[in-house]
Amino acid sequence: MLSLIKLPRVFTINQVPKVFHEDSIISGYRHPRSSATDCILSLFQLTNETLNIWTHFLPTWYFSWKLLTVVLTRDVWSDSFTWPLLVFLMSCCVYPLASSCAHTFSTMSTRARHICFFFDYGALSLYSLGSAITYSAYVIPDKWVNSSFHQYYIPIAVVNTVICTALACYSRLGLPYIQYNHDIIKRFSECKSPKFGKFLRILAFALPYLFDNIPLFYRLFLCVGEGCTDNDTNPLHHTHIALAFLTAFLFATHLPERLAPGSFDYIGHSHQLFHVFGIIGTHFQMEAIEQDMVTRRPWLLMYSLPITFTNTLGAALLSVTLSLGIIFLFSLPLLWSATRGEHTEKKTQSHPIAKGCQYH
What family does this belong to (predicted)? Predict the structure, then answer.
């Protein structure tokens, strides 16, 4: 069937606007004004985004299956102890789905690209909160249970998700209406220095990750004596942490394609590896959380903070609402100009070469 369908063309780096450029990726680019149909068809041809999409789209269904299993096999409606796990698994479904959609439809236009990745950043911030909620409920070491840090841990994590989403969105274009407007004329100053935008993006996601993992880092690396929760789950936590730092390394360094530009355009570049190892790390994180949940349940129910709607689903809903508000604020100038700019952007349909700023 696909052999009867004309697949979209692919282009080299010199044939697409700079905003679509990826570091050390020379070929395999899709048309910068692709239709939604073209974007979907590109899933079935080899471009430099194909594996980026599939490496997150397929795991979405795996985590959805895990979520459905928990809902069907546990008494989630009356057992509040399962609610943190539900929030975490929902975030594990949302972030790869948002990522795969962003990579799929980001070539519909320059504006669409920015908005797609705004949603991607919001989904990642939700995942960081899902991790924090489960760490507060199941992972925090015995010594810290009911401490002041434990009591303020979730509220601070919610604030971090807001900061994460805002800073990540800011890293693309700057402040809406101040550093970019409906014509995108007054551009973000980092337009000529994309490394600064990349640094801001790394910072945006490193800060909530490091904060969320304070209880786990203390439990695994610093705690001595009684109350350190030294159990059989710790090797799973060690594996997850190692994979998390590996994914951060890949994202920051653009290896291996930086060593041989053009050699890894379609298969094996850093963003694909970042997706793969990130998903594997999330799997080990999920396994560790579930094991801690089962192993420590009797003790935590007796001594830990009560698990309520407010510190689980309520916190997640608040975070989603705030992140969507931030995404709307950053997207508004782009959405408002979509109709006005349509005639100018269509000029690139036949001549994809265009000037623009690079954002990864």
Answer: Belongs to the ADIPOR family.
